Amino acid sequence: MRQYLVVANQTLGQPQFIEKLQACMAEGPCRFFLLVPATHAHDRVRFSPAEASAIAQHRLDGALARLRRLGADVHGEVGDPSPIVAIGEVLHHRDFDELILSTLPPGPSQWLRGGVPDGIERIFNRPVTLVVAPADTAAPLEVGT
Predict the structure, then answer these.
(1) How much is the pLDDT for 47?
(2) Residue 84 domain-assigned?
(3) CA distances from 102 to 33, 48, 50, 87, 129 (A)
């Protein structure tokens, strides 16, 4: 059974994100571990660590419910604000066949500007499958179920 580490935050409700996970499920039995970094900045708004964690938890809960309704075997957690630190903490305790990073498009994406995909590959010696939301994406603060 394939094991996927999926890292996302603002893009959890995007169709491209859901389609990627459905494609993984169509390939055969798999499990997902959804990691949502509690990023402090969203849509040019800065949040306190507690607010960022609450937003991330709300998004995680919505995504877990949605993916389970689609038949996914999925669990997850909120992680460190730094996606690289959060990934490192998870990889310290678990192993995965593939890492999927879902991000906003170039421009609004702090993760792309910060070189997160290259950093993951370099630091953890793992390939990253990148799922990028379309350029007209406006990331909502809430994830609907």
Answers:
(1) 81
(2) yes
(3) 13, 23, 23, 13, 8
Residue 138 counted as domain residue? no
- CATH classification at residue 56: 3.40.50.620
> Does the pLDDT of residue 143 top 90, yes or no?
no
What's the sign of the alpha-carbon dihedral 84, 39, 78, 113? negative
Model pLDDT for residues 71-86, shown as the tens digit of each residue: 999 999 999 999 999 9
Instruction: Give the Cβ contact number of residue 30 at 10 Å.
Output: 18
Q: What b-and-e string marks burial along 110-121, b requiring 16 or more CB atoms within 10 Å of the CB?
A: bbbeeebbebbe
DSSP count for the chain of H helices, then E strands: 5, 7
Minimum mean pLDDT range among 32-36, 75-79, 137-141: 137-141
State which amino acid sits at residue 144. Answer: G
